[in-house]
């Protein structure tokens, strides 16, 4: 079923339902008939939530409405619409989503009407239409608390984009801190829920012309699930009704089209594993629920962008082969001279054939650059799209008019269709490499996440602590207080305490120490470490964001998002780069044109069929197309991502670009223990032979000694910890 069909039957992009905390079974009496399936409505029940209180000083009669806004082409356009809306008396909040061509306005209906809002948008130079969705919203406050949410932001192309989103979020009333990582596309916002909520933050991001998706708060009672199997409207309604019936579920967003559900629940009444079990059992195998992985989402988004660019690049390459053959190779071969000069009536056939091949590329592939350039120029700014559009269009338009001129006068002029085509090839190839490189930089976090096991053995105990049953569950659904069974050779699923058994744990991934640590009853174990030789029963103490491995991953993510001081300089240069390049290109054209007019260079330099105008134009185009401001904005954050990622893989945690930049002044490093500098496992570096024994036999014994000291192995575990194979040539042999 298509998204359009779902919308026709009542599905909305995000469904927001708030359930009563004190008695979910009485929700029908509390909410009454207002609970309509899949209706965009913020429900505020009449109870006093222990986390929320009504703020009587705030206006509780504000109304939100959505507008369809046409004619916007860039972030500056959306900002102009926002400015016009916020200038109306009675409008408290306005955000414009550039890509969706929508605006969300929160206003006092007693002071301003929808007609006034529409007129304000039209006066700003755009077309507006009310979508007829008006939602009265209640405002709640949180007692002296702040929340930190993370959002996946798509559409960020350069440092200026990330900076604009950061600046926009920083201006929101109630937001105390905001940071946006350009390579990762993750925005981290700390705010006061009393003054601003998550929906308003997402609307603000969308108003800047980007897509925003909530990916987590770092709290175990606030999660985002992927629910596969909602293939019809009945499935979506069934899942929503099931969630409404769950006692302890406070708030949920349901997005059937994207198969996502965001849940906020009371951990004292409900846990994540229970929610997943009920969803999967309810669907009789039709539904499969799992935690949405923000890292996988980012990687998949990058792959989609890479696929799109690769398809466009292939189209360019396919068209380039015949065009280059006709425009570059044929003129250098005598046998093709008659073919190149062949005319059909007033038309030079070869040039028109090149025009037919280049035109689809110019307007199909170039569409993304033209749209970006139009949005930028309309608001008196410029970006890389402007440079590409100017360079390619100049070559294409001149060549086309050269064809018309030749058809009218019969005088042949040189065409430059291949110039436009090759520029698109170079730019798209660079963009493709950029997307692939950004994807590579995220692999470090993925490798850290893979240190955690994918499954765990959950034990059910009776009152005498005897095992009644055991079952395998996904490690992401392990809860605090669970009793887990850890086999030899497998990784510990979560942080906890040993309640039964004894073993040795390889903690080199955390401490760097090569020697396994003995563990017994009452000892702490860390999730992701390797159990060497004994069976352990572990009571889970920390899960999710509180686990040690999760904190390491979060530290690396925060480091990758932190901006280095030098990046501020790069961002400033990037902001003025394009106008300066356009100015230099114009000066270049004027210089070469005037120099030719005044005879400062011989006219023999001009190729056959060209004139001073075209000759100077080629130099101007060269200046524009070789300049790219994107590298300025991407170089520093990409370097930080690579450095922090590689460092984390080798046990070195770097707290951001600022630390890296200051590290250049370091002259000495003092380590507190030798274990910090080890590989995490012992290895033989030299041997001495004192007895009369064959060298090959002695080397075999030596290899066995090293291998045995590295691993006490039961081989049944799928999480088996691999060790490097013994290498004879790496040993320094001393014959004594």
UniProtKB/TrEMBL annotation:
GO cellular component: membrane
SUPFAM superfamilies hit by this protein: Calcium ATPase, transduction domain A, Calcium ATPase, transmembrane domain M, HMA, heavy metal-associated domain
CDD domains assigned: HMA
Domain of life of the native organism: Eukaryota
Keyword Membrane: yes
TM ranges: 312-334, 346-365, 386-408, 414-433, 569-592, 612-635
One matching Pfam family: HMA
GO molecular function terms listed in the Swiss-Prot or TrEMBL record: ATP binding; ATP hydrolysis activity; copper ion binding; P-type monovalent copper transporter activity
Listed Gene3D superfamilies: 3.30.70.100, Calcium-transporting ATPase, cytoplasmic transduction domain A, HAD superfamily/HAD-like
Cellular localization per UniProt: Membrane
Coiled-coil residues: none
Enzyme Commission number(s): 7.2.2.8
Residues in HMA domain copies: 63-129, 147-213
Keywords: ATP-binding, Copper, Membrane, Metal-binding, Nucleotide-binding, Repeat, Transmembrane, Transmembrane helix, Transport
Family: Belongs to the cation transport ATPase (P-type) (TC 3.A.3) family. Type IB subfamily.
Name under which the protein is recorded: P-type Cu(+) transporter
